[in-house]
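Example A, followed by Example B.
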Amino acid sequence: MILNCVETTKRVVAFTFDDGPDVNYTPQILDLFREIGGKATFFMIGNQVKANPELARRALAEGHEIGNHTNTHPNLTDLSPDEVIRELSIAAQNIKEVTGIEVRTFRPPYFGYNETVHSIVTDKFGYPAIGAMNMNATDWSNPGVEHIVEHSVDHLSAGSILIFHDGWGDRSQTVEAVRQLIHMAADRGYQMVTVSELLQLAACEV
């Protein structure tokens, strides 16, 4: 039910970031991708978009994708169906009001996902639920730059989706790890694309 990668022969990889936009760390991540020439997907929290609208607009203006990460970051499996709908709807509304776009992708907070949530996400909103290959990197827990890199670098492979966090706490380790990883990806000939671009490339090869 959750997509961690796609099958493709193209040397493309999708870096993704959760829990922003954050005034301290999102700009640093955006600067890194501007320097390397890649794109990423930012799964943004609706109320954070409302609090930092200029960062959401900057991400979009620089070619990145914004995905839905709910409005307040609850575990959706703890909510009623109506509450799940409300979380997703308000987040989408806040993002649209700030950026003018309709979001097309979704990542569940805490990866809290079940059949009920899946039905709402796919049937009502039409979102693919996006996971990641490098779950053991656990950058959210600040395990050290070396740990984040070590548990991500093996997943720099065609069609992989990688998860990091640009909000909710000190993300300086993430910034440095991502700096190293995107240079490794570029040196290996990988293009960094958004999740939607990755899905479109895969669809073209079916």
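Example B, a separate protein, is given below in the same form.
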Amino acid sequence: MTSITSTYDPAARVARITLADPERGNAIHPAMVAELGEAVRTADRAGARVIVLASTGRFFSVGGDLRGMAAADDMAAHLDDLADDLHRVVSDLQRSRAVVVAAVQGVAAGAGFPLAAAADVVLAGRSASFTLGYTKVGLSPDGGTSLLVHTLGLHRTLRLALLGDRLDAEEAYAAGLVARVVDDADLETQTDAVVALLAAGAPDAQATAKRVVRDAAEPAPEARLRAEARGITAQAGGPEGAEGVAAFLAKRAPVFGDGD
């Protein structure tokens, strides 16, 4: 069963990529990431000027598929591969000449948060919220979380990573993550309006603006992403990751050790 749908309008040169696994909260798992990566690459090969990243259902994404992680023969190897593939998607979105627009409704949790933030323009319905939550299950962040420092600042990002706080749509707007907050019922039409504005603009100027601004923020994001992958892989191979994931699935409080 496909977890992604994608369409392309060659006249407008607009690609629309939708996370389409609402029964699982658009959880991020290897098959979804593979489909997402192929959709992004296909859009780039087609010469898309705008890529829209959206979702179906109540949530943008609940984050990583913890059941799939727990069922893996080697959770560390599973997460290493998954993080590398997801980070390639994040890098492709950020390196693309296309302007990437994310339309977020409901929660963007775990890796769903930095995936939405990989867009150049983030639009949010009033129901949207953003949270990390990795440390609650004994894992360290991935998906491009470290790149949030450039948008949210050091200590706000640390607060989100360490305390598991949640940003609602208005807080995300005030923090600079979200470009516009609209009623949920208007999210699709407002996204279409932003896409039309971009599609009517100067493509080379937009692509150059995206590149120079992103390079100023982080000229080598892939190095940061690889460091994140190493971190979550190490956690997944240790006792905290095993306990945190098991506790979450058992719906009990985790019991962590004293650390090093």
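On Example B: The longest strand covers residues 4-9.
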